[in-house]
């Protein structure tokens, strides 16, 4: 899987030409460039062949500076033109994969979308996406309330992500899927409040946020945190240990975790 990456600069469309035999181009991640501190969003637009251009993703400083993408472009479709609409450059990274069924679907949106986006601009972006030939991913639906600047989000799955402490530091890294995180935490059984797992009073530990290494509730619940943030996660059994008994957790048990983030590191392959 040969690596692929490019920095898209505002006002400078970039055309990707497929090399013979490269196969599909898989774009896995997007991150804002380091220059500039404007809070205006940067949108990546792309166009293939004679199709209408569509918006691929949207990033904004301090709120969602990077996101998982997960979209394929097939070499048979011809060149792909990428362009940034906004004030800040965007880095795209990915790799080539062998030819196979086209997936042209976004796999996962970053959950840390800014809830305070300008309503008019959001309506315009949503209209543009709807009118293109882009296949939209399933929406991640949740209800949100905010108290003293701290958000509490309740998802249809039963997952609840509650901010207990929020660090407003634009230079602090944001957790993205696949990162390793250095955390202090404790976990309780929702049924009786018993603490069944904890590293309080011990050295903080590293965990990697990938499927199989931590429970799904952690993968989603820790995503988007900054160093210094603290959250409470209420995790349904379906995103915990399910119907299996594990770590003194009974089958179908809901869990409650309090997690504080101390550091982030990129995973080492």
Structural overview:
Helix content is 7%, strand content 39%. Residues 100-139 have low confidence and may be disordered. Strands 9, 10, 11, 12, 13, 14, 15 and 16 form an eight-stranded antiparallel beta sheet that branches. It has a four-stranded antiparallel beta sheet with strand order 1-8-3-6, with no helix packed on it. It has a four-stranded antiparallel beta sheet with strand order 2-7-4-5. Strand 10 and strand 11 form a beta hairpin. It has helices at residues 119-131, 216-222, and strands at residues 3-8, 14-16, 24-32, 42-48, 54-59, 66-73, 80-85, 90-97, 142-147, 150-155, 160-165, 180-189, 195-198, 205-208, 230-235, 255-265. It is built from two helices and 16 strands. It is mostly beta strands and 269 residues long.
């Amino acid at each position: 899987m040969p690596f692929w990456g490019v920095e898209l600069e505002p006002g400078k469309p970039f055309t990707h030409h497929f090399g013979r035999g490269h196969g599909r181009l898989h774009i896995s991640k997007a991150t804002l460039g380091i220059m500039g501190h404007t809070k205006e969003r940067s949108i990546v637009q792309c166009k293939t062949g004679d199709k209408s251009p569509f918006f691929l993703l949207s990033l904004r400083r301090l709120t969602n500076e990077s996101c998982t993408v997960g979209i394929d472009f097939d070499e048979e479709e011809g060149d792909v033109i990428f362009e940034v609409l906004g004030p800040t450059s965007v880095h795209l990274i990915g790799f080539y994969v062998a030819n196979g069924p086209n997936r042209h679907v976004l796999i996962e949106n970053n959950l840390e979308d800014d809830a305070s986006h300008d309503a008019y601009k959001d309506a315009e972006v949503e209209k543009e996406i709807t009118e293109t030939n882009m296949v939209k991913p399933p929406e991640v639906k949740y209800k949100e309330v905010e108290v003293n600047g701290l958000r509490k989000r309740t998802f249809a799955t039963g997952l609840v992500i509650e901010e207990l402490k929020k660090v407003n530091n634009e230079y602090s890294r944001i957790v993205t899927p696949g990162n390793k995180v250095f955390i202090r935490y404790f976990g309780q059984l929702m049924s009786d409040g018993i603490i069944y797992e904890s590293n309080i009073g011990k050295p903080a530990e590293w965990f990697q946020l990938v499927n199989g290494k931590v429970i799904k509730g952690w993968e989603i619940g820790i995503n988007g945190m900054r160093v210094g943030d603290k959250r409470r996660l209420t995790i349904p059994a379906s995103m915990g240990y399910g119907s299996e008994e594990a770590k003194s957790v009974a089958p179908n048990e809901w869990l409650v975790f309090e997690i504080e983030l101390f550091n982030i590191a990129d995973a080492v392959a």
